[in-house]
Amino acid sequence: MSSTPLPRARSRAADAGPPSLYGLDRDALAAVFAAAGEPAFRADQVMAWVYQHGVRDPAQMTNLAGSLRERLHTLVDLALPEAASVLGNSGRDTFKFVLRLDDGELVECVSMRTAKRLTMCVSSQVGCALKCSFCATGLMGLRRNLTAAEIVVQVVAMGEQDGWRDERFNIVFMGMGEPLVNYDAVLGSIRVLRDPHGLNLGARRITVSTSGVVPQIERLAQEGVPVGLALSLHATTDALRDELVPINRRWPLAEVLRAARDYGRTTGRRVTLEYTLIAGVNDSDNDADRLAAIARGLPSKINLIPYNPVPGLPYHRPAPEQVERFAERLYPRAPAVTVRNTMGGEIWAACGQLGGLTSP
Questions:
Q1: What is the CATH number of the domain that holds 253?
Q2: CB 112: neighbour CB atoms within 10 A?
Q3: Do 144 and 172 share a domain, yes or no?
């Protein structure tokens, strides 16, 4: 995939101008062209230029009629949000993007490169209403939901910055916000990302993280889009989870785990149990034993996340030997266990840090 970077265009008012291309799948874009008297195949051509060739300048879309190139900007908006800042870590394998949306709100997303793959972590909301007690984003409160287009543009902005080096990459909805609270926009963005005429991402390359919105987990299982599901568990008792993840008071562990089990069985996908290890809070041997029992009760794998500090919060990361002890207690009894390699902590881009600080 070639890349033709362009200067970021000026923001437009959210209620003015043509629709954003990035919120439209192939059928919706074809309808826009049909209404303008253009054949439906123009949708295929434009999506190929933008998503497969990295070209957003209509003048360079050489297989379009000259008249369409001249007026394309009146039919769809190809602009990306202004990048208020792009912060890279010292290893230059992690970048945090702070994007300024049309109404001035800021949203953060992160690209992370390892030897095996590129992963893009996208946000679904500006802020978050769930107030998980260890998370920087929860301190913001909820500013607003993102549109499907505002989710997809995060992927395009990160892809352009990376030069579209990877035709295959992973998308994780683990940025700012609770994805399943903004269900329609998140699902709409997934359909755009998966469109064969666009980025053509397989469902196995997309993971949606949730703190446990049970009705929407059940709904997602029936969509026929078997994306990965990651459950932000973080505690093995209702008493502690009520404190760390307050949504647990509405849908306690038994309900959340039942929904996760059904999701795994319906989609054929193992559910990832995300477990942030917090020193002296949820990292005891008893916690490990209960977590192993939970994991055995459903198709799952465990992802241990050593806590990433947030200024002003009273939590601490366990010592490396305690993380290792916890993991080793799980290994013989849990289906699969990994320990997440922290990336981007120095630029406040690691798990739980988004929205805390926008500069190192």
A1: 3.20.20.70
A2: 22
A3: yes
CB atoms within 10 A of CB 17: 14
Chosen domain end from 59, 75, 91: 75
Letter for the amino acid at 163? G
Domain assignment present for 15: no
Map residue 173 onto helix, strand or coil.
strand
Place of tokens 């785990």: 257
**pLDDT tens, position by position, 238-295:** 999 999 999 999 999 999 999 999 999 999 999 999 999 999 999 999 999 999 999 9
Closest CA to 357 of 343, 345, 341, 340: 345
Boundary (domain end) residue, out of 55, 75, 95: 75
Are 162 and 118 a contacting pair, CB within 8 Å? yes
CB 174 within 8 A of CB 207: yes
- Same structural domain, 244 and 99: yes
Query: Residues in the chain, how many?
Result: 360
In a domain, 321, yes or no: yes
CA 163 vs. chain centroid, Å, equals 20
Q: Is 351 a catalytic residue?
A: yes
DSSP secondary structure, 81-128, as one string: PEEEEEEE-TTSSEEEEEEEPTTS-EEEEEEEE-SS-EEEE--SEEE-
Q: Which of 109, 121, 135, 351 is catalytic?
A: 351
The model's pTM:
0.92
Q: Are residues 134 and 37 in the same domain?
A: no
Same domain, 57 and 147: no
Instruction: Kindly state the tokens that stand for 294.
Output: 């939970």
> Residue 352: inside a domain, yes or no?
no
Let me know whether 243 and 203 are in one domain: yes
CATH number of 29's domain: 1.10.150.530
CB atoms within 10 A of CB 243: 18
Q: Using one digit for the tens of pLDDT, what is the confidence trace for 101-148? A: 999 999 999 999 988 889 999 999 999 999 999 999 999 999 999 999
Catalytic residue (one of 38, 105, 108, 328): 108
Name the nearest CA neighbour of 236 among 338, 100, 334, 164. 334
